[in-house]
Write a structure and sequence with these properties.
Elements: E1 5-13, H1 21-39, E2 47-51, H2 53-62, H3 64-75, E3 79-82, H4 96-114, E4 120-122, H5 132-138, E5 143-147, H6 148-153, E6 165-169, E7 172-179, H7 181-186, H8 192-205, E8 209-216, H9 226-232, H10 235-245, E9 250-252, H11 255-261, H12 276-281, H13 285-298, H14 304-307, H15 319-322, H16 324-345, H17 350-362, H18 380-401, E10 409-413, E11 422-426, E12 430-435, E13 441-447, E14 452-453, H19 466-471, E15 509-513, H20 519-523, E16 539-544, E17 548-559, E18 562-573, E19 578-586, E20 594-603, E21 612-616, E22 621-624, E23 629-641, E24 646-669, E25 672-688, E26 696-704, E27 717-720
Parallel strand pairs: 1-2, 1-8, 1-9, 2-3, 4-5, 5-7
Antiparallel strand pairs: 6-7, 10-11, 11-12, 12-13, 13-14, 15-20, 16-17, 16-27, 17-18, 18-19, 19-26, 20-25, 21-22, 21-23, 23-24, 24-25, 24-26
Helix pairs in contact: 2-3, 4-5, 16-17, 16-18, 17-18
């Protein structure tokens, strides 16, 4: 057999739900359009192209000429359109009904707009579990692309990864192409000759082999420094010239064409895996650092080449334990998915459910559910977008079932899959999720009118790349570095801005501090915690009245070793835009003052803009939301966001000191390391002393968007959780 090789170039173009329109447009101008400009004249070359649903729909609206060009290339047999789940979810995160539904939905869209029903699929982030095979095949897909890393983890020798393989589950057969990690790092970061030489090496060793490059299309112009390298200096044109000049032995074909021309290389069952970097990112930070250290130490060892095949990181699902906020979004998504499935089983009109299903699918977009070389979960606008679609879907389901009426509802269940019961209180204005077992905190607060979660917050944690931040920037020379190797500061002194939180940034977090604790010590996390109420369980009762519901929580704990009883109640009234929160401290000493504070956090209210600001009880502006406040004898504080159209007001019946300060993270993005505003902490605090019965109390009213109402609790029923 003559020395030749089939080369499958598979591009994955993606922008997530919730990303800024300007980012879409810049990526189009820097990557997607110029790539087609360069590719179109090379009529001997084929590629496979996957464009995620959010991006493709944006292109159809903003640049329909791009779709016209794609359709012509499809008809000419130059471009194979690769499908996949419509809104780019991690498939292992979804129930089977949603996996299949997303793939089928996008397949229909592509057939309608591009005249091509996809036979192949892009697996988002190449996150794979064997049980996916049945669902993918049932959705009409015949082949997909993973990484060669998956195959090496299954014990397949690297020299055998020169074709596609068959895998099976429950009798369903699926073809899987191993994307080459070596090609991922030569294209486009090394001279074109490196790619051609590798193809020649494989052609000589395994004539007729199939090599697959599968990676982000944003590498061609959007990633830092690549636009000038790929287009300005002509790297991509040089690649296509070289492939054309060597077309007698390098056959640049689509995935579908490779299936037609070649037989499977064998059968394989792959472990639960993703690409190498993703397995590392999913590890706990300490384990990630340890793996990195061991890997560097072993690289020079003579056995490392053989050993490294069996050394890998973690498992994508553990992002739900690494980031509690990921699990919160996931649990919220599952709640909506179950409600939708129940409505479908009940025979609700399919047309109405289609709109709800689209919101659910959009809320499953993977990007804010994890974190690696890109912002991911650290990007508030992506988290907010996920919640916006999930809350909208929930609201629409409520209308179908009558839940959006003036009635108020309360329920208890293990909503976030932690084996403890949480409480959900809702009316037509607000939806509140409370975790008695986790310090009695409110962990989600939805303003239903604008589908916004005021508690889409983020706890600041150590990340492995913070070691690079502490070491400082190191981008020198003219070479184009892989995004994994760049250390660029987008703001100065980021090494001095690293800070970590001991607890989640939620609301109704109950603290006891030293009496001399200050705004600065609390904001910097330097104030000592003197009580045991922040994280530990509260006993809870759920009370239902004719027009209101209440969750009452009680804990016998201590502060400074003094036995105390803390009782707090959250009350919601039908039709009200307010929550009433009542605190009662008992067994307080009468001969000394204790410093008590209630931490509240509010997310989705950005800093650095004049139309996002604080006001006091006299409606006087106190500055932008990114500023710090240290108020005395205050009875009210409001946070306003004119872009969202929301005013969040906290009123207290007992004047207090109020600290307010921004929560900011140092996180990693495509362009470097940056400071990101996550939320605003509002922290009323008092020096409390017991009355003659050792008691102290305060009532707080939290209002979002609407007028305030004075309410009283009318108890009819008590349910113990």
């Amino acid at each position: 057999m003559s020395e030749h090789v089939h080369l499958c170039l598979v591009l994955h173009n993606h922008q997530p739900i919730g990303n800024f329109d300007g980012v879409f447009e810049q990526a189009y101008q820097d990557s997607y359009r110029p790539f087609l400009d360069v590719f179109e004249p090379y009529d001997k070359l084929q590629i496979s192209l996957h464009t995620s649903g959010p991006l493709m729909m944006w292109l159809a609206e903003r640049h329909p000429d791009y779709l016209d060009r794609l359709r012509l290339l499809v008809e000419a047999g130059r471009v194979e359109i690769v499908g996949g789940p419509q809104y780019e979810p991690i498939l292992t995160m979804l129930p089977p009904r949603d996996r299949i539904g997303q793939i089928e939905s996008y397949g229909r869209w592509l057939e309608r707009y591009l005249g091509s029903k996809p036979a192949g699929m892009w697996t988002p982030e190449r996150v794979w579990e064997s049980a996916l095979t049945s669902d993918v095949v049932d959705a009409g897909i015949h082949y997909t692309v993973l990484d060669d890393y998956h195959f090496r983890a299954a014990g397949v020798d690297e020299t055998q990864l020169t074709g596609y393989f068959i895998t099976e589950d429950n009798g369903r057969l699926l073809r899987i192409f191993p994307g080459s990690e070596r090609l991922r790092y030569t294209i486009p970061f090394q001279p074109v000759a490196a790619t051609i030489d590798y193809c020649r090496e494989v052609a000589r060793r395994s004539p007729g082999a199939v090599l697959t490059f599968g990676d982000d299309g944003e590498k061609f112009g959007t990633w830092p420094d690549t636009k000038q390298h790929v287009y300005g200096k002509g790297w991509l044109k040089s690649l296509f010239n070289a492939l054309t000049e060597n077309s007698s032995w390098i056959h640049c074909v689509s995935l579908g064409e490779a299936v037609k021309r070649t037989a499977p290389a064998g059968k394989v069952y792959l472990p639960d895996c993703s690409y190498r970097e993703m397995t590392e990112w999913s590890l706990p930070t300490e384990s990630q650092l340890k793996l990195d250290e061991i890997t560097h130490e072993m690289e020079s060892h003579e056995c490392w080449k053989d050993l490294k095949t069996f050394v890998r990181g973690g498992y994508w699902r553990n992002f739900k334990t690494k980031y509690e906020e990921t699990n919160e979004m996931y649990a919220r998504m599952m709640h909506v998915s179950r409600r939708l499935a129940d409505a479908e089983s009940a025979g609700v009109d399919a047309g109405q459910l289609a709109i709800i299903r689209d919101h659910l699918y959009r809320g499953q977009c993977n990007c804010p559910y994890w974190h690696g070389a890109f912002g991911g979960i650290y990007l508030p606008h992506l988290r907010n977008a996920v919640y916006q679609h999930l809350i909208t879907a929930d609201n629409l389901l409520g209308k179908l079932s009558g839940d959006d009426s003036d009635a108020v509802q309360a329920s208890a269940d293990d909503y976030n899959f932690d084996s403890m019961q949480e409480v959900r209180l809702s009316n037509d204005k607000l939806c509140v999720w409370v975790a008695p077992g986790r310090g009695g905190r409110i962990y989600e607060l939805d303003v239903r009118q604008i589908s916004h979660n005021l508690l889409a917050t983020l706890q600041r944690r150590p990340e492995s790349y913070h070691q690079k931040v502490l070491a400082g920037p190191n981008v020198d020379g003219e070479d184009v570095a892989s995004i994994h190797d760049r250390v660029v500061f987008k703001q100065a002194d980021l090494d001095q801005r690293l800070q970590y939180d001991r607890y989640a940034r939620k609301s109704l977090m109950d603290h006891f501090y030293d009496n001399d604790a200050t705004l600065q010590s609390v904001a910097r996390g330097e104030a000592m915690e003197r009580g045991d109420f922040v994280e530990l369980p509260f006993e809870a009762k759920l009370r239902r009245g004719s027009d209101r519901v209440q969750v009452q929580m009680r804990r016998e704990g201590n502060a400074w070793g003094i036995p105390l009883v803390l009782t707090k109640a959250v009350t919601m009234v039908a039709g009200s835009e307010s929550l009433e929160v009542t605190y009662l401290l008992e067994n307080l000493p009468s001969d000394r003052e204790l410093h008590f504070g209630i931490e509240m956090n509010f997310a989705g209210l950005p800093s650095g803009a004049d139309d996002r600001y604080f006001t006091d009880e006299h409606d006087q502006r106190l500055g932008q939301l990114g500023e710090s406040l240290d108020l005395y004898d205050a009875s009210s504080l409001s946070l306003s966001d004119r872009w969202l159209g929301i005013d969040v007001t906290m009123q207290l019946d007992r004047p207090s000191g109020i600290w307010a300060f921004p929560i900011q993270t140092v996180s990693q993005s495509e362009a470097g390391f940056e400071l990101v505003h996550q939320s605003v902490c509002v922290h009323p605090h008092w020096l409390v002393r017991g009355d003659e019965e050792g008691r102290w109390h305060v009532t707080m009213k939290l209002t979002a968007c609407c007028e305030q109402h004075a309410e009283t609790v009318d108890e009819q029923q008590v349910v113990h959780l």
